[in-house]
């Protein structure tokens, strides 16, 4: 049992490095006028991977060597394109100056705050939506299907929204629109709860638009920085995503404990309102 702790630490360190470097590689290699499209494809594949994991677990179970063997095979397959492109990896050029890592969180705060909000909403919303659905009267099966609609929106809307971001001169305006739609969605959820089909349609759009905060935020980061700064900022970007993943479930859980089912939407709304205020202030001052 105790061996699992260091093994999981090693696993997640490796996955985090993979996460950071792959996003840096994609952002650097994507043509500037197609960065949103390329990152939309990346986010779509990422969402499919997140969806495939629980499905694989349900099919394979957790006992014996089979689930571990399948994952080993998938990791090996993922290594093939990396090895094939080993001579094409981007060169990280440093200016020779050393900087505090945390400064990269504040270098392009509209991007890092976007992924923090997305991490909080995605993790907290996904984890506690079945509880919320049950408390507003849905069966376990109906709540699970609504959760599937959010995931479907995540998968299907990233490429079109990424393409739209390529046509916008300043992606912060699009990020502001996404956060506003996210806030509006949390406001309308209680009013749509009595009709499953309306709720499903709302969550499909809401899930896809909120997930675009990750896609467009990453595209905005790539458009503002390059080289060593982009690599370090990508690490800060993933760090903020992790911070959001920790904050989201806690905030939503506390909100539901204090205010009942309505606390679910109010807690989500606080994250969106925070981001809208941040981007509005940055735009008003005309800074990154």
Keywords:
10 helices; Growth Hormone, Chain: A; mainly alpha; 288 residues; 83% helix
Count of DSSP strands = 0
Number of helices: 10
For the largest beta-sheet, the strand count, sense and barrel status come to: none
What fraction of residues sit in β-strands? under 5%
Provide the CATH architecture: Up-down Bundle
- The succession of helices and strands, N to C, reads HHHHHHHHHH
Task: Tell me what the structure shows.
It is a single chain. The protein is mostly helical and 288 residues long. It has one domain: Up-down Bundle (Growth Hormone, Chain: A), CATH 1.20.1250. Helices cover 83% and strands 0% of the residues. The protein is built from ten helices and no strands. It has helices at residues 4-29, 35-60, 66-84, 103-107, 109-135, 140-166, 171-192, 196-224, 227-259, 262-285. Helix 2 packs across helix 8, helix 5 packs antiparallel against helix 6 (140-166) and helix 7 (171-192) runs antiparallel to helix 8 (196-224). The protein starts with a helix and ends with a helix.
């Amino acid at each position: 049992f105790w061996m699992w702790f260091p093994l999981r630490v090693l696993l997640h360190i490796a996955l985090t490095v993979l996460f950071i470097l792959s996003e840096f590689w994609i952002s650097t290699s994507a043509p500037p006028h197609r960065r949103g499209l390329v990152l939309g494809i990346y986010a779509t594949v990422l969402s499919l991977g997140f969806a495939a994991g629980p499905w694989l677990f349900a099919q394979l179970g957790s006992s014996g060597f089979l689930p571990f063997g399948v994952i080993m095979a998938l990791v090996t397959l993922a290594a093939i394109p990396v090895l094939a492109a080993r001579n094409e990896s981007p060169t990280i050029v440093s200016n020779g100056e050393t900087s505090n890592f945390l400064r990269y969180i504040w270098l392009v705060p509209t991007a890092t705050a976007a992924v923090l909000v997305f991490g909080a909403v995605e993790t907290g919303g996904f984890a506690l939506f079945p509880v919320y659905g049950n408390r507003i009267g849905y069966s376990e099966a109906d709540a699970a299907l609504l959760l599937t609609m959010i995931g479907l929106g995540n998968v299907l809307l990233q490429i079109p929204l990424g393409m739209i971001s390529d046509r916008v001169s300043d992606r912060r305006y699009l990020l502001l629109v996404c956060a506003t739609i996210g806030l509006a969605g949390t406001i309308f959820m209680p009013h749509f709860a009595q009709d499953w089909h309306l709720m499903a349609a709302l969550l499909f759009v809401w899930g896809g638009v909120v997930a675009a905060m990750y896609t467009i935020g990453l595209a905005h980061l790539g458009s503002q920085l390059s080289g060593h700064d982009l690599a370090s900022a990508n690490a800060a970007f993933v760090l903020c995503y992790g911070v959001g993943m920790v904050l989201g479930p806690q905030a939503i859980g506390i909100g539901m404990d204090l205010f009942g089912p309505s606390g679910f939407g109010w807690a989500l709304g606080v994250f969106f309102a925070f981001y809208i205020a941040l981007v509005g202030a940055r735009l008003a001052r005309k800074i990154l």
